[in-house]
Amino acid sequence: MQNYMNIIVFYAIIQPINLQLLINVKNQGGDVMQENITANVSEDTVILDFLRLDGVYVSQLVDFTNEVEAMKVVIPAEEELGQSGHQTLCFLTHAAQADFIAPDAMAKLRQKNPGTVRVAEEDKGWRQTTATAWAGRATRLLSPAAARHCATARDRVYLRAADLTRWAPRPGMEQSTYSSEVTPFPAHALSPDAVDGKPAVGPCVAENDTAKECICHLEVCVNWYPCGLKYCKGKPQGGLSYRCGIKTCHRCYRYHYYVRRRDACLSYT
């Protein structure tokens, strides 16, 4: 774990950044943890990362220019379950820009009291994503920043094929190029019924055979993030509206994705 944390620190040092904030936040269980927020105005990206109390490392990138959100999750092995090493996953979704303030606004944030423990003002609930394909080379085409962010996940980068039509093609590309670069999950993994004689794929939590395919399920909660700007009226602007702070939110994510073997699902729940 120490070597892994060194990698995280090195990764943060070499990135070209415009703002970096270390925030103390309280999760829903009452525990205090730290989040690191990095805003890069030149790349138009924001990265929020933290280490969960169970040792899982979470790093969320939002690429505003290309409207791509990349959630990277590094899961340490549980030796008592016969696992070894760690596993890196990445989930690409279409970014809802209104849900995360832009890098230029983020870069203006300052902490008056760095030691303060923050609690989100609004609970955004759950966002569920059922992946339908391995992203493959489409990751680089969709967002160079996301491709770098997810590089260590290798072939464990997932997306919903339906999202491909929401991303505008890059200059000189056709919309269909994205679809041609992804690899869909097997048809019977996407259907609740048998397909071509193959039974539907069940959840990993209900599968006892480690060699059998199943649908893995992973949950991630971001306990505090700037989700909007606050505007006030008053003397500074002659009665006109002006920026006077940020709104903060809490959101949880639930991801479902296909694995060829249950032992490739380090999170069985």
What does this structure look like?
This protein has 269 residues and is mainly β. It contains five helices and 13 strands. It has helices at residues 2-14, 103-106, 138-142, 144-149, 176-181, and strands at 19-26, 32-40, 45-51, 57-63, 68-76, 86-94, 117-118, 122-130, 133-134, 157-159, 183-184, 214-233, 241-259. The strands form two sheets. A ten-stranded mixed β-sheet has the order 7-1-2-3-4-5-6-10-9-11. It has a three-stranded mixed β-sheet with strand order 8-13-12, with no helix packed on it. The radius of gyration is 20 Å and the shape is globular. The two termini are 23 Å apart. The relative contact order is 0.16.
Strand order of the largest sheet: 7-1-2-3-4-5-6-10-9-11
Number of distinct helices: 5
Globally, the shape reads globular
Q: What is the averaged pLDDT score?
A: 87
InterPro entries: Oaf, Oaf_C, OAF_N
Domain Out at first C-terminal: 204-267
Domain Out at first protein BRICHOS-like: 20-167
Family: Belongs to the OAF family.
At a glance:
The chain is mainly beta. 13% of the residues lie in helices and 39% in strands. The radius of gyration is 20 Å and the shape is globular.
Which helices and strands occur, and which strands form pairs?
Elements: H1 2-14, E1 19-26, E2 32-40, E3 45-51, E4 57-63, E5 68-76, E6 86-94, H2 103-106, E7 117-118, E8 122-130, E9 133-134, H3 138-142, H4 144-149, E10 157-159, H5 176-181, E11 183-184, E12 214-233, E13 241-259
Parallel strand pairs: 1-7, 6-10, 8-13
Antiparallel strand pairs: 1-2, 2-3, 3-4, 4-5, 5-6, 9-10, 9-11, 12-13
